[in-house]
6-phosphogluconolactonase
Amino acid sequence: MTAANGEVIRLPTPAAMAAEAAGRIAAIAEAAVADHGYFAWALSGGNTPVATYRMLAQSPWRERIDWGRTHVFFADERFVPHDHADSNYRLAEETLLSHVPIPAQNVHPTPITTPEASAEAYERSVLDFFAPQPPRFDLVTLGMGPDGHTASLFPGMDDVGGGLVAAVHNSPKPPPLRLTMTYRLLNEARHVLFLVSGADKAALLEQIAANADTPLPAGKVVLSERPVVWLAHLSG
Ligand SMILES: O=C1O[C@H](COP(=O)(O)O)[C@@H](O)[C@H](O)[C@H]1O
């Protein structure tokens, strides 16, 4: 199946999806390090990627990734302290980052001060990381909520400003305050991998597959060089 913005690969079980994702992430990391000496990855939170993160922390995937050359950023973050149960940073730290030899300075959590100041500061750190090149992640891994949101870009949130990172107020999914990378930044990535799990998301994926002009945020992530890849386990 193809989606208007990419290729859809259906997997029979959550474990199969995690293994497929881990293999693809490791391959992209290897290619990025071979090409330009580092692997810049913007990852997501939510429930779906947990199995993949746990798998990446184990052999053989753990050894395939050069963690010393890997830099981890956050495609979105809930505006809570980093030790809060809702924090995407905490999730990534507990399930993956604390189990692999990634240097502390290679993990780039969002600052949590005030929403606008944090968005501005995070945008600055993304720009500084890639300078003098324009910001371009080797990989962005994203999820899709049952309303079609991705990162913290929600349906109806049409104006996220012209920046690379935006503060989100009144998110329909708690917590209400969030930070998110915008389409402008996400769509510059070399690779985008969606991890989608749950029967409640099957119809949404059909909608995105059928409609190039979908208003659903997840369908608006489009790359110029290659299709977005959707790994989907949609049966219950
Ligand atoms: O709130 C969020 O939700 C999305 C989707 O999560 P999932 O549990 O349905 O996979 C996630 O991608 C995003 O990072 C997170 O902040």
Remarks:
- The pocket of LXAUTJHC is lined by residues 44-48, 76, 78, 88, 142-143, 145, 151-152, 173 (CB under 6 Å).
- The helical segments are 14-36, 50-56, 61-64, 88-95, 115-130, 183-186, 202-210.
